[in-house]
């Protein structure tokens, strides 16, 4: 059974309000990171279903965004730009020791998730269905 990447997006949303011993910043960083990976894989799967092929290494993140930005479709160009922004936030959350206002980064990340999900036509239920 293959993993349903929507569940990472659902987890990202749940992490926003979860009370944990790791603190608020840890929760928000994890939310940004998991949300990106969920959105990225949902987008990659959609493109693969349309016949696009991608490598399996770390370059696949850039390949997906590039395929969208060079498609000639303005909506896909915008989607590629938003995936790139989301990846930037994920990199910040995963690698930067200090982030000025993590709540703003996480809120912007969530706004982008919601827009991409709408564009992909993906809906999220409470149980990931």
Polypeptide structure, described:
The protein is mainly alpha-helical and 129 residues long. The protein has one domain (6-120). It contains five helices and no strands. It has helices at residues 6-15, 24-49, 60-69, 74-95, 102-120. The longest helix is centred in the N-terminal third of the chain and has 26 residues, at 24-49. The radius of gyration is 15 Å and the shape is globular. The two termini are 15 Å apart.
Taken as a percent bin, the fraction of beta residues is under 5%
Task: State Rg.
Answer: 15 Å
**First-last Cα distance:** 15 Å
| Rounded average pLDDT | 91
- Summed up, the domain count is 1
- The low-confidence runs, each spanning 5 or more residues with pLDDT under 50, are none
Q: Outline of this structure?
A:
The chain has five helices and no strands. It is mostly helical and 129 residues long.
Name the descriptors.
129 residues; mainly alpha; 5 helices; globular
How is the secondary structure organized here?
Blueprint: H1 6-15, H2 24-49, H3 60-69, H4 74-95, H5 102-120
Helix pairs in contact: 1-2, 2-4, 2-5, 3-4, 4-5
């Amino acid at each position: 059974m293959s993993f349903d990447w929507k569940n990472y997006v659902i987890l990202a949303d749940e992490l926003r309000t979860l009370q944990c011993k790791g603190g608020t910043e840890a929760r928000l960083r994890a939310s940004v990171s998991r949300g990106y990976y969920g959105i990225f894989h949902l987008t990659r799967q959609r493109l693969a279903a349309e016949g696009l092929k991608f490598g399996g290494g770390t370059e696949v993140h850039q390949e997906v965004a590039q395929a969208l930005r060079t498609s000639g479709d303005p909506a896909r160009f915008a989607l590629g730009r938003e995936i790139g922004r989301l990846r930037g936030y994920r990199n910040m959350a995963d690698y930067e020791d200090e982030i000025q206002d993590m709540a703003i980064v996480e809120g912007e990340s969530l706004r982008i998730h919601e827009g991409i999900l709408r564009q992909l036509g993906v809906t999220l239920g409470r149980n990931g269905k």
